Amino acid sequence: MWSSNDSTEVAFLPIYLVLGCVAAASAVRHGLRGALGHISLVIFCVVRFVGNLLLLIAAHTSGDVKGLVIAGFIMQGLGYSFLITAMLSYLSHLIRDMDRAEAEPAEKEAGGKRTRIERILNVVNIVALVLLIVGFNESMGSISTSSGALNMQDLNVMVKVGNILYLALTVLLAAIAFMHIPRISTSRQKLLLYTMISALPFMVVRCVYTVYVTFQGNPRHGSLAARIVCQYVMEVIVLIVLGVSGLLLPRQGTPHANPL
């Protein structure tokens, strides 16, 4: 018998496929050199699709399904890492575009500092991902099945720390984006920055919700409506914003353009 959670995960499978195709179109349009952010979006869609599929299989399989549950949760947590990677790509291109436009020694030095900040943010992203993977693996002993329903009673503290790091990283990215508003000097910079500003609030909502349910002890805990809105819909909005932005940005080789 299918639960409401199962129906929700099935409903979003074709959505991930469609949005993955949009991201792939953006990646092809800009070529490998300029499509890092869009390739990350394609990977995100694939990972979320597989994660949902694994949880569905686990929910309707008899016997020991702990491995499938862990893999499904890891896929869902790992997916957000690729959204962060895409956003970091936008930030990197934005900062370099602004520095080239200003082309002053002081700004070039500042640009070097910002590059170091980007590297630090990438490291935090990787650390959060590792914490989620290890934490979910350590939580395997807490998974039980009851009446066909999956229940994870107690998550390892590393899962909680990993999700908190993602929330902090997302808020920091939003703050950095808003700090760069006064530096906008071209339409391309405006599109890059406003794409970030448009997408990041939805990512913050998604992270706040994830932290909340993690501390409740079960990633599928609480209201299904809240889960649909605060997790699935937030992610879909971010994918749409970044996907459309990729289609609007000028392609590689366009004069005075530095496409993603």
Automatic annotation (TrEMBL):
Pfam families: DUF7702. Coiled coil: none annotated. Keywords: Membrane, Transmembrane, Transmembrane helix. InterPro entries: DUF7702 (IPR056119). It comes from the Eukaryota. It comes from Malassezia japonica. This is DUF7702 domain-containing protein. The chain crosses the membrane at residues 12-32, 39-61, 67-91, 120-137, 157-179, 191-212, 224-249. Residues 6-249 form the DUF7702 domain.
